[in-house]
Amino acid sequence: MGQPPHILVVDDHAQIRESVTRYLAKNGMRATAAKDATDMDAKLAAGHFDLVVLDVMMPGEDGLSACRRLAAEGAVPVIMLTALGEEPDRIAGLEIGADDYLAKPFNPRELLARIRSVLRRSSRGEPLAGKLAGRRVRFEHLVLDTDRQILVDDEQGEIPLTDSEFRLLVVMLERARMVLSRDQLLDLTAGRTAGPLDRTIDNQISRLRRKIEPDVLRPRIIRTVRNGGYCLATDVEEQA
Amino acid sequence: MGQPPHILVVDDHAQIRESVTRYLAKNGMRATAAKDATDMDAKLAAGHFDLVVLDVMMPGEDGLSACRRLAAEGAVPVIMLTALGEEPDRIAGLEIGADDYLAKPFNPRELLARIRSVLRRSSRGEPLAGKLAGRRVRFEHLVLDTDRQILVDDEQGEIPLTDSEFRLLVVMLERARMVLSRDQLLDLTAGRTAGPLDRTIDNQISRLRRKIEPDVLRPRIIRTVRNGGYCLATDVEEQA
DNA sequence: TGGAATTGTAGCGGTTTGTATCAGGCAACC
DNA sequence: GGTTGCCTGATACAAACCGCTACAATTCCA
């Protein structure tokens, strides 16, 4: 793993969130906190995570229900935290698709060990193009072929994309019409966090625009949001 | 899962062996018992198992030691049974490479849930379950005959593969659409870890591409992921 | 044991990508 | 309306990465 793994901690108790994220950060991981299932969904959409630590008891959507959703999607492994410690609940957690669980109160060291264990198991690579792997999608006058990593222009034919152009485009297509900050884009495409003078994303956007915008001086597909980031301002539809 | 999973239960107490194997059999699994590490090795060599349930405390070779061996080999997932229930030991079990553990005395239903959880986890990333052996698979314009270690091109006929080309191709076919780092590939094909200037995998990819890519200059089947590794970007289907 | 095939190592060169820098544009404020 | 300051677009350059060839080491087999 080139980058330290990124963990999302979901718990409604602020104190637990903070102590856990701090402990994980101290032990060489990146940790982000979410306060409920809605927050979790937002964070998952906005960044890249290698594992989710999920509390069972939460206001709003239940932890078990949230876990079931994540497991069905299969994109990210889950460790459940249960305050009950009762067998039926513990078993329910596993049967629902959690990769592991831990009874509260727990030893942080043990949580860390379990996270490492689950990560080791699921350390095989992620799919290249995310949910778009193996598909072809159309937007405006272009069709992206994710297998061949090329764009097909309705008139001009094939346009090859470099790796970073391709990753950036895939990330934006998966989040069409959402405003994505440079930080988010850098996290999603390269899995790293930006330095203070980082113009990497600006540069890549510029290069990508040259390949997809009919009029580079007045970009329509990738719109700039001043002080916000960038936004793919077009509809995306799947192609047979 | 076509076949019911086959579980090997290793414990020196005859009573536990029997009750566990009986319980697993009643719940749709095949279960076999072994009374110590030596017996375990014999059973593993004689047949195929999907998971090993391993007691920590055993006469002869220690359970932790046996677990370390199995984990190093990486062929089969392990669930440890510990009579102690003490944290330090539990953590040691995970750090040694066990996929999960359970403290005695345990609820058989929970053991079953954990077995299912680990099996689900370890089968998720292996679409063909590593059991490409003895099968024939098709991808793009090629059919790989694993028995003869030969590719059959739809038009050009048979293409022989060297050992390392074959191993590399099998590993990638088993993980189609996943991005595999050079480290992972070297580990999976040769069982060793890469040095700092190791270009072995690049070289083997290059040689393999020459045999399978219609246009070597623009590879379509095995794609390079800059800073990531390689990815087999095509569907793989089993052939009768 | 000798020769052929296979596999690992070294190095060159092209491509891609991150960083630095400058120029233009938008907004706020006087 | 002009000016100032920040933000973004574009260019240039340097470093990193990867493909390929050539060669050395190893293995395999007769």
UniProtKB/TrEMBL annotation, chains A, B:
PTM sites of type 4-aspartylphosphate: D55
InterPro entries in the record: CheY-like_superfamily, OmpR/PhoB-type_DNA-bd, Sig_transdc_resp-reg_C-effctor, Sig_transdc_resp-reg_receiver, WalR-like, WH-like_DNA-bd_sf
Keyword Transcription: yes
Record domain OmpR/PhoB-type: where: 134-234
Family annotation (SMART domains): REC (SM00448), Trans_reg_C (SM00862)
GO cellular component terms, semicolon-separated: cytosol; protein-DNA complex
Entry keyword Phosphoprotein: yes
GO terms for MF: phosphorelay response regulator activity; transcription cis-regulatory region binding
Residues in Response regulatory domain copies: 6-119
Keywords tagged on the record: DNA-binding, Phosphoprotein, Transcription, Transcription regulation, Two-component regulatory system
DNA-binding region per Swiss-Prot/TrEMBL record: 134-234
Swiss-Prot/TrEMBL GO biological process terms: regulation of DNA-templated transcription
Superkingdom of the organism of origin: Bacteria
Protein name per the record: Two-component system OmpR family response regulator
